[in-house]
Sequence to fold (537 residues):
Amino acid sequence: MRNITPSSLAFHLLSLERIEANEKAKQFSINSFGLIAVVQGSLLSEDRNQKLTMTAGEVVVFNPTTEMFVHGENCTYYFISYQVFQPNAKEMSNPFFHFNSKEHSPAKVKIPIRSLTRGLEQMYRHAWSTDVLQQCTNHMYFQEWMTLILTEQLKQTNQEHNSVQAVEQIIAYIHAFYYEELTVEQLAIKAGTSRRQFTHVFQKLTNRSVTQYVTNIRIEEAKKLLVQNETLASIAKVVGYQDEYYFSRRFKQVVGKSPRQYAKLKKDGVKAVKLPVIPQRIVADQYMGQLLCLGIAPIGARTDMLNKDYIAPLQSTSTLLHQTIDLGKDFFISPSRIVQLQPDLIITQNEANYKTFGSIAPTVVIPYPHTSPLTKLRLIGEAVGKLKQAEQWIARYEYRVERIRSQMISRLGTSLSVTNLLLLTNKLYVLGPYAGYGSYSLYQALQLQSPAKQHKELTELSLSAEIPISNLPEYVGDHIFLSAYGDTSILTENEAWKELSTVQKGNVTFCNPYRFAFEDPYSLDEQLTTIKRALLI
Fold:
């Protein structure tokens, strides 16, 4: 014999009320489980948590609450209160919320109107019978009717789950074929859902309409092409617009600048030169990783570019690296020291150096903050005669990004939000999508979402924001990436940090600041590995 109580579930009807809603509002005080079933018209229910619209054929199930107001005119509905009995349960719970992740929100179920009406009318007709046999029949019929609702709820929950998976696959498809003519109707058919269901789930997953989502992807791709001197007509066609004038209008609506204004902003300060021969003696005040990736060791570089923490993993890439001359810690390298090295090319990040350096040797200026990592590599590759190698690395990198992104969409969906933080000299910074320390990898390459407040405040112009630790909850998403120099206790021992649900769940990745600070190929590769390990492994 088993020493356990058999598992069973029973509903006990407490009250049943049929209401013809001609009055403005009706108040219910509910101390037990309750439900409202609408058989004609529509009505609005309102409790202290939210408002909910109901139409004919819908049943809404509530957990016990203090009071609720129902508004409706020319509407017929039933109000039922009931209890739930489960012999082996420690406490009474509402089985309808077994399928509903939001336990404090009403559970809405769509029921075929004939089944709903017929069942309610039969229960209502005999609800007050004093006949014992009829009372037993009433009880059995109530179990059957509640089972019908549970069955329909489970069916709809499974359908919704399948719809989410289907729409997530369509989102991945959009990222791969954004340049094609994409309509909501076509995408809904591909997902195997109705147009209404598709748009509802899509909005829920992305917080955007299909049109907005496709437009944003196209505009982001267009941004990359605009800095490569492509014509507007060709860019428009590449990203999916046949009319360059329509493309220009859409671009300005999204970015706030015309394509030409955006391209000029990005190119301002980038000064390149055409060299008659491939340079052999290069001096650089930045971009060591890019040069080494292309098989080039500069003859002179700033101290920070030779820092052991940064350069140690790259020692094997060049046997000439130990011959590179340390030109000092200052961003402005002494011209006299550069002259002694007799360079045939100087690469700098500072436009203020251009005239001085240009009088010594041909000089390329690539501003660090406002030039994307892949564009930096292309410009350097072009300057040193290694553009083919640069494009080959970029192609491998983009292929890897797409693979990781597809895996993330498949496993995590598209609603995951991540927060990128920097702790520097005991100051905490929130980093936007155009800042350093892995922001490019997180937000631009892998296209992960940032929390709403961070997304609103941090743009291409405002790269980061210093915040007090007490304000951190306003900026935290589902996962935190933290780059920190030295001791982190000022943050990790703070109660505001400890109380974050993201921290309590262990969804925090501590990043190597020396690898996340830079955007060279080696750093980008390591950042992808770190992010993939944090979110997928």
